[in-house]
Write a structure and sequence with these properties.
The protein is an all-alpha fold and 203 residues long. It folds into three domains: 67 residues, no CATH class; 43 residues; 37 residues. It is built from nine helices and no strands. The longest helix has 41 residues. The N and C termini lie far apart (104 Å). About 7% of the residues have low confidence.
Length: 203
């Protein structure tokens, strides 16, 4: 490289201008990507919600655009994308002896926590087996309270065997000469009066 000639001031100025132009283009491209991501993030759900609402290739394309935009904007804001976070969550999951991931789904951080949870569950089941009368009712109530919120909301106050009870009630009502319209009306009335019964609801 001894044959290299020193750059003239004009060449240095041209190289600096080219570098500045390249930097400006990169900044413009980044700004374009950010504005496009914001536009798609807002417009995609709106376009999906407009009629006709159907699941076709266009809807999948819009969902993909929404996901990619959200991922890009998250990476721009926080330095880590949504995909990176999911991969880290999966990679940090410890495997238990049965080969399943400990930290996924259960929300527990370690094998020790899983052991404690299993021990507590076994103790509770043992208490239920040994309990009688009033203690059994208390333990059942506590177990009912510790059910997942979604299950409690979905099932309401129904207990085990509710399907069989409903079938028996339906057969009894049909045997008495009532029709399905009467059964539906009674169920609606139960919901309307919060299960207080027909007489109490009319008072």
């Amino acid at each position: 490289m001894a044959n290299e000639q020193p750059q003239t001031p004009d060449q240095q100025q041209a190289a600096a201008a080219a570098a500045a132009l390249q930097t400006q283009r990169e900044a413009d491209y980044q700004r374009f990507k950010t504005y496009t991501a914001w536009t798609l993030l807002i417009a995609s759900p709106i376009l999906i919600a407009l009629p006709p609402r159907k699941l076709d290739n266009l809807t999948v394309l819009q969902l993909s655009a929404f996901s990619i935009s959200a991922n890009h904007l998250t990476r721009e804001r926080t330095g880590r994308s949504i995909v990176d976070r999911i991969e880290d969550k999966i990679a940090s999951g410890r495997t238990r002896s049965d080969g399943t991931l400990a930290s996924l789904g259960s929300g527990l951080p370690s094998e020790r926590a899983l052991e404690i949870q299993a021990r507590l569950r076994a103790d509770r089941e043992k208490q239920i087996e040994e309990a009688k009368g009033e203690e059994l009712a208390k333990l059942k109530a506590r177990e009912e309270f510790e059910k997942p919120v979604l299950q409690r909301v979905w099932m309401g106050s129904e207990t085990e065997g509710w399907k069989e009870r409903r079938i028996r009630e339906e057969q009894q009502a049909l045997a008495e000469g009532k029709g399905y319209g009467d059964l539906i009306r009674e169920h609606i009335w139960d919901v309307w009066t919060w299960g207080k019964g027909k007489d109490e609801g009319e008072k």
